[in-house]
User: What shape does this take?
Amino acid sequence: MTFFLPEVHGAKVNSIPSVAGLALASVTARSSTRRRAASSKGPPAWAREDLRYVYPFSNGVEAFSYEPATKRHTIDYARTCWYVLMHVIAFTCGPATFSVPALLLCVGLFVSLQTLGISLSYHRHLTHRSFQCHKYFEYFIAYCGALNMQGNPIWWTMNHTWHHRFSDTPWDPHTPREGLWTAHAGWFFEKERILTKMPEAIVVSHNYTEPGEENEVYLPWFYRESPEFYDFLRETYYLHHIALVILLYMLGGWSFVVWGFVVRFVVSLHGVSAVNSFAHVWGEAPFKTGDDSKNNVWVAMVSS
Ligand SMILES: [Zn+2]
Assistant: This one.
């Protein structure tokens, strides 16, 4: 039996298979009401209980008994320059290279890479395990997600899992409680921000660890099942984007590159970012989730 609860954007979700799912749903329901009471004195007991279900192979409770750092880190100039450059190209070259085929390409790639890749694969499947599918379909939609330039699947699911467990607490990597801009994009520009929000053992494991190594207990389920495929994606991540740009140029010149890569990337990036920012400030909150997440129809339209 699979325990399935579809997620509405911005709302808390628990969709884990069978017994573990029921247990997690129960624990999270009880704990969520106490979420607002989280202090900065280290994760409370309910959080450590939650994480035992996120990382079932771990007994490293000590890894979670740390305090989030409040220090602001220096700006990551490489990421900042990339972010600014993509926006400048989108707003200057976008109108100049517009064509109907380029617009259709942009929409088609948005649906493929954002809806299938991020929303269906990274989010619903790899992070929340909301459904089961054939391995080849899993690889296909995960590859679509990797082409959307929001990080490799291992990094993305680590960040999102942690965000769900600690939404709008001091351990949340991106919460509007630290400012709307910080939640939307600013968090991404701070060097080592993730390391101020979650244990180093977990961050390091998702970047470097392979099965059999000490930090293996923190690796996600899909990596354990198919380490070769997800290692391949992690190690060749940027090459696929370069190949996509070359392919788009060969198919339709700079018009296809600007609309199929840059404009599509900027739209999908702000769609996903809006879930972290706007959907935690404005919208309906029909369920008591214990955090600030809300259902916002406008955010839903640009993020899925
Ligand atoms: Zn989620």
